[in-house]
Amino acid sequence: xxxxxxxxxxxxxxxxxxxxxxxxxxxxxxxxxxxxxxxxxxxxxxxxxxxxxxxxxxxxxxxxxxxxxxxxxxxxxxxxxxxxxxxxxxxxxxxxxxxxxxxxxxxxxxxxxxxxxxxxxxxxxxxxxxxxxxxxxxxxxxxxxxxxxxxxxxxxxxxxxxxxxxxxxxxxxxxxxxxxxxxxxxxxxxxxxxxxxxxxxxxxxxxxxxxxxxxxxxxxxxxxxxxxxxxxxxxxxxxxxxxxxxxxxxxxxxxxxxxxxxxxxxxxxxxxxxxxxxxxxxxxxxxxxxxxxxxxxxxxxxxxxxxxxxxxxxxxxxxxxxxxxxxxxxxxxxxxxxxxxxxxxxxxxxxxxxxxxxxxxxxxxxxxxxxxxxxxxxxxxxxxxxxxxxxxxxxxxxxxxxxxxxxxxxxxxxxxxxxxxxxxxxxxxxxxxxxxxxxxxxxxxxxxxxxxxxxxxxxxxxxxxxxxxxxxxxxxx
Length: 477
Ligand code: URP
Ligand code: ZN
Ligand code: ZN
Description:
The protein has helices at 75-84, 102-112, 131-144, 163-176, 187-199, 205-210, 214-231, 243-254, 265-269, 280-285, 295-307, 322-325, 345-354, 361-375, 460-476, and strands spanning 2-6, 9-11, 16-18, 20-24, 27-32, 42-45, 50-53, 55-60, 65-66, 69-70, 87-94, 119-125, 148-152, 179-183, 235-237, 259-264, 312-314, 393-403, 422-432, 435-439, 442-443. The chain has 477 residues and is of the alpha/beta class. Strand 4 and strand 5 (27-32) form a beta hairpin.
């Protein structure tokens, strides 16, 4: 099975060049001018288009059991929707319920993901602590290729990681050469504000936003980053949504700490006015955590992405349809938290990033695939267009236009937070493992074709950085 992408401009995070790309047996075999295709090879004419690494979405929740229901998008439908938007890999989350052995949860998620059309990996959440968690973390890193552990600082009474849990888990992660990641919101503060708002009779989606102020994110980001500093573990902040958190990340990075940050396409482009929409269902459809913010935070997020304070873009793709959102009709705290976006991330970022002059095409590649691959240790297998890399590619038509709509999207949800957005720049062809999986509107995703991608633990350089930073800092305090 071979494929030649001919006549395009190859864009990576580093460079742009006119080149053909030849793929065989799932890998990129040649990149260069005027490549010959063997007889029988499929040919894609990429004239006038860009050829880039397939997108990697480092934050999705396919078929997540959450808040009394299960996310409507499964691993097959979700990764197929990703193909329609040029995303070829995801990193999803295993989220054990408190007291569930990590390995049991991990096996359950591996089973669900077998239907995936695109390649996938997992972050594993640490939601509780005992010696079995300590042991399972080692098994996950050493045998299963998990190199990142997630901590929800919010969702008190459910999956929230206390400071004690974070401390134990961060210590274990650094021993194992793993990264820690956090959802930074002060769960206690959110919980108390929720109770107050409910007591005042504020029961609609607008109260969701009020219960999760930017300061709750800023405080939690600061706390998690300080824990990571003391322990000497690299930390990745998921869905950074506020100036408050950006400032904390920027300061830590300026002081030499290994802190990385992710921003969601939704937080870059949507503001908090959606929670005041007169239609309850529309307002509820936007309920996610952290919530959409006042406009000035969007500027801070764009600036942070442009300047490198934030390095990755994601979606937190977590779909709940109208009847699921209706579980919170009389109490906003019961609206399942989550919104979709895997299909729209790249086109929305191209339109409002490259199209608006905020990002170059090379920077677009950096923030949609290469940086994620580097941070999570799968580069250059993913996130590059180089000989020997996985043939996960997108042919990008910078002139193509469309209007985003739930009526036409592939995502398994009845709402689109980007509804009506006019975009310019679209995936015309998507290639996964060297095969065309999406071609000019023709969806060719194959159920179960996706592979689990192991991510090795970090190299000793991380340990060395951790140790050299840890000792003097701890003595100084
Ligand atoms: O609202 C969200 N983000 N739902 C998914 C869980 C999480 O916090 O990432
Ligand atoms: Zn989260
Ligand atoms: Zn999430």
